[in-house]
Amino acid sequence: MTESTITQLQPMPDDWQRALAVVAHPDDLEYGCSAAIAAWTEAGREISYVLATRGEAGIDTVAPERCGPLREREQRASAAVVGVSAVEFLGHRDGVIEYGTALRRDIAAAIRRYRPELVITLNHRDTWGGVAWNTPDHVAVGRATLDAAGDAGNRWIFPELVEQGLEPWNGVRWVAVAGSTTPTHAVDAAPGLERGIRSLLEHRAYIEALTDEDPETYVRNFLTGIAQEVGKRFGDKPAVAFELFPR
User: Fold this and answer.
1) pLDDT, tens digit, 9 for 90 and up, residues 162-205
2) 110 near 50, Cβ under 8 Å?
3) Is 3's pLDDT higher than 90?
4) Burial per residue of 177-192, b for 16 or more beta-carbon CB atoms within 10 angstroms, e otherwise
5) pTM of the entire structure?
6) Can you tell me the distance from the alpha carbon of 207 to that of 196, in angstroms, rounded to the nearest whole number?
7) d(CA 68, CA 246)
8) What's the DSSP call for residue 211?
9) CA–CA separation, 39 vs 190, rounded Å?
10) SS3 201
């Protein structure tokens, strides 16, 4: 097997209509895969967002009671840029999300509500590329989402969901993990890259607290740099990478 065969990323499946993205915080999707989401919605696919928190602990200079509503507004505006209107917040506490049955149940309930074929989440492993330590929130939500994709189809794991009118949903065909250190598939980022950039820019309060660099310069360089790097394994065109787990 040649090196190019080993490292080449495969195109993401396109025989689906509904996707649900589940992440921990506002901006997680915009840093991870908004260019892909923009391309999908442009093609007529339906994407919904579920966020475990409102990101209220994300800005050191803004108290949580003010930060949460601010970041929720930024997230809704950000989603609208890439064609997503359904944005739901589960109300878990930012920074101290606990992996466990309560989180799995909340995500399984969301999967039953939105009935996606594709579920998207963020890197659930301990590190980013073996270099930077991942946050406990990302690990907990990513892992719980992978588990909840199965829980959503089993009426006996969370029977209270059936009592609430949420029948099991066995229609999840894949879980796609953005930001993975071991991606398997990719999406052409070119059609959605500009909207992906504008989408991340909607998180202006967060970005201005994160860096002294001009927000647009920072966002453009960050997202185009990643897309170009992924593209080296996807026909030398800018791309968004995913690790795909068939269900």
Assistant:
1) 999 999 999 999 999 999 999 999 999 999 999 999 999 999 99
2) yes
3) no
4) bbbbbebbbbbbbebb
5) 0.95
6) 15
7) 34
8) -
9) 8
10) helix
